[in-house]
Specification:
Rossmann fold, 6 helices, 21% strand, alpha/beta, 23% helix, two-stranded antiparallel sheet
Length: 263
C-alpha cells in the first residue's frame, strides 16, 4: 500500500476526490473533505462517535469483514484499532475506488472486493468481527442476507446498523397466537417491516424500513444474540444458536457486479 500522500500534493488529491464524486462517506483525506455538504453532517463520523466506545479499542490479531463498505470509513477505523486483516466488500465499483483512495491516503492496508452480501459464501472464511452498516434497508431480501452472514462469515461479533422508523419501544409479543388474532397486528411496538414500493428519501434502493422491535426480532431469528444497543440504530450481536424452525440458507456463490446489486 503506498504511503500517505503529502500535504504538498493536495491539489492533485482534490482532483482525484472530485473525479470520484459523489461520495456518501465524508472522509477527511489529508485535509480534503470528500462530502463536506453531506445532508447528515459529518457522516458517518458523527454516528461512529456515538458507538465507537462499545467496540474493542485493541483489535490486534482480529479479522474484520465490512459488508457494504462504501468509501471505507468503518473499515479504516477497524484498521486504526490494529486489526490484523480488514476486508471490505461492495457491489459498486465506484465506492471501491473511493475506499482504495482513502486507504492509500491514510496508509492503511485493507482488502477490497467487488461483491454483495448475497455473495459472502464465496469468501470461504469466517471473520472475528463483521460490520453490516447501512445495508439492510437497501435489500429486497433482508432476512436472507442475515441468514447468509450467520451461516458463512460471522465468527463472533456482528455489528448491525439500519435505518429505523416507527415505535422506539417494543410491545410484548407472545410465542404463538390463534388464527383469529388481529389485535397484535395493530400494536405500534410490534415487530414491523415497512415495504417501500417506490422511493424513500428520494432513493429507489430503500426497500424495507424496520422498527426497532422488528430489527431485533430479525437478528434473533437469524441466530444472533443481541449483546447491546449502544446507539439508536446500532446493535452489537454475538453468534448464537439458530432457531430450530429456521433452515440454513442456500449458498449463493456468484458475484453480482452490476451497480445496485444489493437489490
Amino acid at each position: 500500500m503506498p504511503r500517505a500522500l503529502r500535504s504538498s500534493s493536495a491539489p492533485a488529491l482534490r482532483e482525484r476526490v472530485e473525479a470520484l464524486r459523489p461520495w456518501f462517506h465524508n472522509l477527511t483525506l489529508d485535509g480534503v473533505e470528500t462530502a463536506p455538504d453531506h445532508p447528515l453532517g459529518d457522516y458517518p463520523r458523527t454516528k461512529w462517535d456515538r458507538f465507537a466506545a462499545a467496540l474493542p479499542a485493541d483489535l490486534s490479531g482480529r479479522t474484520v469483514l465490512d459488508i457494504g463498505c462504501n468509501a471505507g470509513f468503518y473499515a479504516l477505523e477497524m484498521k486504526r484499532r490494529g486489526a490484523e486483516r480488514v476486508v471490505g466488500i461492495d457491489p459498486d465499483p465506484r465506492y471501491l475506488e473511493q475506499a482504495a483512495l482513502a486507504a492509500e491516503v491514510a496508509g492503511l492496508p485493507i482488502e477490497l472486493r467487488q461483491a454483495s452480501v448475497y455473495d459472502v459464501a464465496a469468501l470461504g472464511e469466517r471473520f472475528d468481527i463483521v460490520l453490516f452498516m447501512g445495508v439492510l434497508y437497501h435489500l429486497r431480501h433482508p432476512l436472507l442476507a442475515l441468514d447468509l452472514i450467520r451461516e458463512h462469515v460471522a465468527g463472533d461479533l456482528v455489528v448491525v446498523q439500519s435505518l429505523l422508523r416507527g415505535a422506539s419501544e417494543a410491545a410484548p409479543v407472545a410465542q404463538d397466537y390463534p388464527f383469529e388474532e388481529t389485535a397484535v397486528f395493530d400494536l405500534a411496538g410490534a415487530p414491523r417491516l415497512q415495504f417501500v414500493e417506490h422511493h424513500f428519501a428520494g432513493d429507489p434502493t430503500n426497500w424495507w424500513v424496520p422498527n426497532r422491535a422488528c430489527l431485533a426480532a430479525m437478528l434473533r431469528s437469524a441466530g444472533f444474540e443481541i449483546e447491546a444497543q449502544p446507539e439508536t440504530e446500532v446493535f452489537l450481536c454475538r453468534v448464537g444458536a439458530r432457531p430450530a424452525a429456521v433452515s440454513p440458507p442456500p449458498s449463493i456463490a456468484r458475484t453480482n457486479t452490476r451497480k445496485g446489486a444489493y437489490a
